[in-house]
Amino acid sequence: MTWFESPSAAWKPGSWRDRLVTAENILVTLALAAMVVIPLAEVVLRKAFGVGISGSTSLVQHLCLVVGMLGGAIAARENRLLSLSALEMFLKGRWKSAAKIVGGSVAIAISAFLCIASAQFVQLEREAGKPLAYGIPIWAVELIIPLGFGAVTLRLIRHASEGWRGRVTATLLACVLAWVAWRPPFAPAHLVIPFLMILLVATILGVPIFVTMGGAALILFWGEDVSIVSIPTSHYGLVTNPSLPTVPLFILAGYFLAEGGASKRLIRVFDALVGQFRGGPAIMTALVCAFFTMFTGGSGVTILALGGLLMPVLLAAKYSERDALGLLTGAGSLGLLFPPCLPLILYAVIAKVPIKEIFLGGILPGILLVIMTAAWGIWKGTPTAERRVFVWKEAREAMWAAKWELLLPVVAFAGLFSGLATPVEAAAVTALYAIIVETLIYRDLRIIRDSPRVMSECGLLVGGVFMILGVALAFTNWLVDAEVPTHALAWVQSSIHSKYVFLLLLNLVLLVAGSVMEIYAAIIVMVPLIVPIGLAFGINPIHLGIIFLANMELGFLMPPVGMNLLLASYRFKKPLAEVCWSVLPMLLVLFIGLMLITYIPQMTTFLPDLFARSP
Q1: H or E stretch including 132?
Q2: Dihedral, CA atoms, 221, 342, 70, 151, nearest 10 degrees?
Q3: Cα–Cα distance between 114 and 117 in angstroms, integer?
Q4: What is the rounded CA–CA span in Å between residue 451 and residue 447?
Q5: Average model confidence (pLDDT) for the chain?
Q6: Torsion of Cα atoms, 59 then 246 then 545 then 605, to 10°
Q7: pTM (predicted TM-score)
Q8: How many Å from the N-terminal Cα to the C-terminal Cα in the chain?
Q9: How do residues 33-59 score in pLDDT, each as one tens digit?
Q10: Residue 182 — φ and ψ, nearest 5°?
Q11: Beta pairing partners, 83
């Protein structure tokens, strides 16, 4: 579950592999650039001339598909596809090699079947003959799906072992699995459980999450003799959702912040404003981490970008190493409830609620968690030997130096809530603003040399997430076809009669889910199950969404697969057990905040209701 290290691909052509790497990076950069330019051009033309770009919405949606599949291929190239298991970190020598080969064989087989299913999907689309725009057939763009899964398959073979012998072994094992699936010795229904057990073992051994979710969907559909073409169909339908292009665009803005000098300037601002108080460094840590996470969409990026800067500050302020480590690990996910963070958008898409309402609903609960984190930091803080006083000149100079970055939320919110632009157009404006600020105003990044690298890194994150989302939706569709939500609703209604008891049990279930599921897969799989049950108890879906995401925020800190735990262990070079121990106080603080969010719904619904009443 790691995002660390930049794409290794340099931009200097050499071998055929270097040229392929360069081509992939250029293509994902161009696709992201087009996603920024097309909505902005649409806004300008619409305002100036009363006409827009024909098919612009569909073009941007399909560029989102291109970014997702290219980014997934890049993530596979860099061996950075998200995994649920950290077992590989603890294995050594032959055990590690064997685990990679066995897990790799399952991953290769599943990815190959996804490639075949995607090719069949494209063939059906080609026969349908639907156009995209400007005479471009839609199947020509959809071809990126089998090409992407094909590239991932080849790279899974490469990463299955360090040597060719291990790679050949993994490929042969994958062929055996594929042959048994293609020519089963028994009725497929009798092989579903054994195949799911094999998939479970592979998941424990560390296969990517998309393999786990896609494999489960493949096995379950195969066992019921349902065409596996439904999986790429679901993937395509989700990734081309009209609201989803906001995700890569807001993440792009966050990546330019993280890669530029924004972290140092923002730390200086918050330090100048609150650093003189007892616990000031902890308050600053909570604020700057929340600011970064709300745009990058991932707490991992926040920990990696800010950890090296904030840890010395906390230690210098006399925080113990354990408290500093726990605070940084816990604060990494604080911005998840603030717009325009990625999980909020995904929940809105899956739960079919307005994006603006879920954005508004997350603001007050997000502020509560930041305040509680800062309060814990104040309590653990100690008076420094040298008392600092507030210096208005320093605060003014710091804010002036970071003024353009401090205005970024204003730009995003103005676009989102003014009604002058669609969410996608507002996201494009935010991304362009961040690019201009970091490359042309501050010049921390060079627009020609550094922008492609940053955009490739953004594409990698987007692709890794979108591959999970697409195949997870197929698994969710199987659950719906099997009437799992209906049965779950009937059981809950017959067994639980109090809304408050239901909310308590929901929190317990979600905390367990957050400890074993990655947040994006959890949104796709669990939200369609819990929303109907919540509605049956009269729970506002916006309130339910914030409860869900607050639980997932705690999930980043929950063993065994909490992403913040693994990334903090990597970033600060500490044993995982030490990180887990250090984060326990933060878990307790955030759990208390979760209970307040759960049982005081007005905290979530106040702003959406207020804006709904506004003329």
Answers
A1: strand 131-133
A2: -40
A3: 5
A4: 5
A5: 86
A6: -110
A7: 0.84
A8: 45
A9: 999 999 999 888 877 777 778 788 899
A10: -75, -40
A11: 208
